[in-house]
C-alpha cells in the first residue's frame, strides 16, 4: 500500500512542529461549504504518518465536517462543496481523476455511534474485503483483524452470532476491526468513544496506542483529556477556523493562541 | 395521594374518564370491522360450504350447477398471481431502490413521487382500458394470461413502489455510511445491506399489492378474460379465466344454485388469499429474525 511516494517539504503551517517528511495527508486551504455557507474556512494542516492527530473544538466548529471530507463521506450530503486541496501522497483527493470509492477503501472510518451491520461478527469483517476482491483466507483475515482490535478473545467462540448481540464497546471495536480488515492507510475516527462507558473507552484508547505503529490515525474528540492522553498532534478548531495546530504537549501546555489556552483549560466551550 | 387537593383529584378523575371513553371508542371501531368480516364469512359459509368438495375444486364450469367447478378459474388465478409477482416485484423494488438510493433529491424526484402516488389512486377499470389498448392490441398479446398479468402489474406497481420506498427509508443512514466508508459502491451497499434490512417492509407491501390483484375483476373483464373456460392454460399466451370472474359470472345467473356456487367460489378465493398471505408473513418473520 505504501508504494506511493510522499510529497516532501510541503509548507509547514506551524513553526513549532518539526518538519517531518512523512505526511499522510496534507490539507491546503481547505474550505467546506454547505449550500454556499462555509462550515470549514481555509484550513491548512497535515496529518503525520503513524501518529495520532486529534481534532478538538466546541460543537459546530466544523471538526466532524473536516474529518468526513478526508475520505469523501461528505459526497453523500446534498449541497456540500469543497475548495482547496487535500493531498494524499501526491494526489489531490478531490481531483477529477479520483474515484471516491477508491479513496474510501484506502482511508477507513469509524463513526460516533457503533454501526455494525445486522449480520454475524464474521460477515461484518469479511464482507468488505470480499467485494473488493480479497483473495486470501477470510478466516485468517477475520482472526487477524479481530486480534488487532483486541476483540478476538471475547468473540472467538461466537463468530457466527449476530454482531448486534455485542455490547456497545465491543461493537465499536468490531467496527474498528472491520475498518482494519481493509488494510487502510489512514483511519479516521469521529468521536469513537462518545457513546461508550469509561471502561470501553479505556479499551479503545489502549487499542489506538497499539495501532499507531501501523496506521495513521485522525480522531475527532470532545474529550480534552482523551486528546491529551492519546494524540501526538492536536488541532484546535473554532467557528470553522483552524486556530492552532501543533504537537499535543505544546498545544496543551504552552498554547500560542489565547483562545486555545482558554479552551483546553476549560474556561469556555 | 393525600397530597392532592380535592380540585386536583376531580381534574384527574375527569381526565382518566376521558381516556377510558376514548379507548373504548377505538376498541368499538376496531371490533366492528372484525364483526363485519365475521358476518361476511358466516353468510358465505351458510350458502357455499355445502358445495365445496373435491368435485367442485376439480371440475370445469358447467351449465348444471351440480357438475360445475372452479378448476379452470383456480388454475388461472394461480398462473396470474405467479406472473404478476414475477413481473411486478423486480420492477417495483428496483424503481424504489433507484428513487431512494441512486437519485439526488430534487424537483424531478418530487415530480415522480407525486405521479406514482396519483397512479395508486387511478380506478382499476382505467388500467383495464390501458391494458386493452397497449398489451392486447398494440403488442398483440391477445386476450392471454400475459396481457392480464401485465395489466395487473401496472395496477399494483405504484403500491409496491410506495411501500418499498417507505421500507428503504427506514434503513438507518449509519448502515449505509458503514458500507460506503469501507469502499463499497452504491450498488454493493444497496444490494448487501439496504435491501436485506428493508426486506420485511417490502414483503408487507408486496403482500398487500398481490392481495389486491387477486381480487381485481374489472381490468380482467375489459382485457377479455373468458367466463366459460373448459380447459387449463398451459402457458402465458393461453386465454384464461380467474376466480373473481367466475364468481361474477355465477352471481349474474338467475338460478339460486349458481348463487350458492358463487359463495363456494368466494370461500376458495379467500382461502387462496389466506394461504398466500400466511406464506409471505412466514417468510417475512423468518428473515426478520435472521437480521436481528
TrEMBL record, chain A:
The protein's name in its UniProt record: Phosphate ABC transporter ATP-binding protein
Outline the extent of the ABC transporter domain. Answer: 25-264
One cellular-component annotation, GO: membrane
**Which gene name does the record give?**
pstB
Organism ancestry: Bacteria, Pseudomonadati, Pseudomonadota, Gammaproteobacteria, SAR86 cluster
Molecular function (GO) terms listed? ATP binding; ATP hydrolysis activity; phosphate transmembrane transporter activity
GO biological process annotations for this chain's record?
A: phosphate ion transmembrane transport
Q: Report keywords, A-Z.
A: ATP-binding, Nucleotide-binding, Phosphate transport, Transport
Q: Which domain of life is it from?
A: Bacteria
UniProtKB/TrEMBL annotation, chain B:
Q: Which GO terms describe its cellular component?
A: plasma membrane
GO biological process terms held by the UniProt record: phosphate ion transmembrane transport
Q: Which GO terms describe its molecular function?
A: phosphate transmembrane transporter activity
ABC transmembrane type-1 domain residues: 74-279
- InterPro entries attached to this UniProt entry: MetI-like, MetI-like_sf, Phosphate_PstA
Keywords assigned: Cell membrane, Membrane, Transmembrane, Transmembrane helix, Transport
Q: Which residues cross the membrane?
A: 21-44, 78-99, 119-139, 145-163, 213-233, 261-283
Q: Where located?
A: Cell inner membrane; Cell membrane
Q: Which PANTHER family match?
A: PHOSPHATE TRANSPORT SYSTEM PERMEASE PROTEIN PSTA, PHOSPHATE TRANSPORT SYSTEM PERMEASE PROTEIN PSTA-RELATED
User: NCBIfam families, per this entry?
Assistant: 3a0107s02c
Q: What is this protein called?
A: Phosphate transport system permease protein PstA
Amino acid at each position: 500500500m505504501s508504494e506511493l511516494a510522499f510529497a516532501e517539504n510541503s509548507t509547514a503551517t506551524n513553526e513549532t512542529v518539526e518538519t517531518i517528511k512523512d505526511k499522510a495527508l496534507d490539507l491546503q486551504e481547505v474550505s467546506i461549504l454547505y449550500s454556499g455557507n462555509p462550515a470549514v474556512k481555509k484550513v491548512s494542516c497535515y496529518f503525520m504518518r503513524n501518529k495520532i492527530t486529534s481534532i478538538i473544538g466546541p460543537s459546530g466548529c466544523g471538526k466532524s465536517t473536516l474529518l468526513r471530507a478526508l475520505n469523501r463521506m461528505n459526497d453523500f450530503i446534498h449541497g456540500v462543496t469543497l475548495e482547496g486541496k487535500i493531498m494524499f501522497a501526491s494526489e489531490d483527493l478531490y481531483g477529477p481523476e479520483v474515484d471516491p470509492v477508491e479513496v474510501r477503501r484506502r482511508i477507513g472510518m469509524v463513526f460516533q455511534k457503533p454501526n455494525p451491520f445486522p449480520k454475524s461478527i464474521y460477515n461484518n469483517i469479511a464482507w468488505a474485503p470480499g467485494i473488493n476482491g480479497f483473495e486470501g483466507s477470510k478466516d485468517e483475515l477475520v482472526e487477524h483483524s479481530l486480534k488487532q482490535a483486541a476483540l478476538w478473545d471475547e468473540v472467538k467462540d461466537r463468530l457466527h452470532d449476530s454482531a448486534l448481540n455485542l455490547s456497545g464497546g465491543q461493537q465499536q471495536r468490531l467496527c474498528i476491526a472491520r475498518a482494519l480488515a481493509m488494510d487502510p492507510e489512514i483511519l479516521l475516527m469521529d468521536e469513537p468513544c462518545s457513546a461508550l462507558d469509561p471502561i470501553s473507552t479505556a479499551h479503545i484508547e489502549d487499542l489506538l496506542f497499539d495501532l499507531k505503529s501501523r496506521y495513521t490515525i485522525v480522531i475527532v474528540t470532545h474529550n480534552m483529556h482523551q486528546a491529551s492522553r492519546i494524540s501526538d498532534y492536536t488541532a484546535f478548531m473554532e467557528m470553522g477556523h483552524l486556530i492552532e495546530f501543533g504537537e499535543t504537549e505544546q498545544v496543551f501546555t504552552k498554547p500560542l493562541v489565547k483562545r486555545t489556552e482558554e479552551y483546553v483549560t476549560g474556561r469556555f466551550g | 395521594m393525600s397530597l392532592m387537593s380535592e380540585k386536583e383529584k376531580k381534574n384527574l378523575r375527569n381526565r382518566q374518564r376521558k381516556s377510558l371513553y376514548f379507548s373504548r371508542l377505538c376498541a368499538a371501531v376496531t371490533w366492528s370491522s372484525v364483526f363485519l368480516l365475521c358476518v361476511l364469512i358466516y353468510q358465505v359459509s351458510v350458502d357455499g360450504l355445502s358445495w365445496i368438495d373435491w368435485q367442485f375444486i376439480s371440475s370445469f364450469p358447467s351449465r348444471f350447477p351440480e357438475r360445475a367447478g372452479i378448476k379452470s378459474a383456480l388454475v388461472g388465478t394461480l398462473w396470474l398471481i405467479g406472473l404478476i409477482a414475477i413481473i411486478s416485484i423486480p420492477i417495483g423494488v428496483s424503481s424504489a431502490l433507484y428513487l431512494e438510493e441512486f437519485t439526488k433529491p430534487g424537483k424531478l424526484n418530487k415530480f415522480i413521487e407525486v405521479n406514482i402516488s396519483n397512479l395508486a389512486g387511478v380506478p382499476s377499470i382505467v388500467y383495464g382500458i390501458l391494458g386493452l389498448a397497449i398489451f392486447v392490441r398494440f403488442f398483440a398479446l391477445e386476450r392471454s394470461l400475459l396481457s392480464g398479468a401485465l395489466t395487473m402489474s401496472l395496477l399494483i406497481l405504484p403500491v409496491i413502489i410506495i411501500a418499498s420506498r417507505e421500507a428503504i427509508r427506514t434503513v438507518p443512514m449509519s448502515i449505509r455510511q458503514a458500507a460506503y466508508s469501507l469502499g463499497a459502491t452504491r450498488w454493493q451497499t444497496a444490494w448487501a445491506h439496504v435491501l436485506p434490512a428493508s426486506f420485511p417492509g417490502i414483503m408487507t407491501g408486496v403482500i398487500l399489492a398481490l392481495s389486491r390483484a387477486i381480487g381485481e375483476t374489472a381490468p380482467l373483464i375489459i382485457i377479455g378474460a373468458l367466463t366459460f373456460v373448459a380447459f387449463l392454460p398451459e402457458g402465458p399466451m393461453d386465454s384464461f379465466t380467474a376466480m373473481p370472474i367466475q364468481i361474477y359470472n355465477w352471481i349474474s345467473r338467475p338460478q339460486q344454485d349458481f348463487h350458492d356456487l358463487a359463495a363456494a367460489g368466494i370461500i376458495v378465493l379467500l382461502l387462496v388469499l389466506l394461504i398466500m398471505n400466511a406464506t409471505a408473513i412466514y417468510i417475512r418473520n423468518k428473515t426478520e429474525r435472521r437480521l436481528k
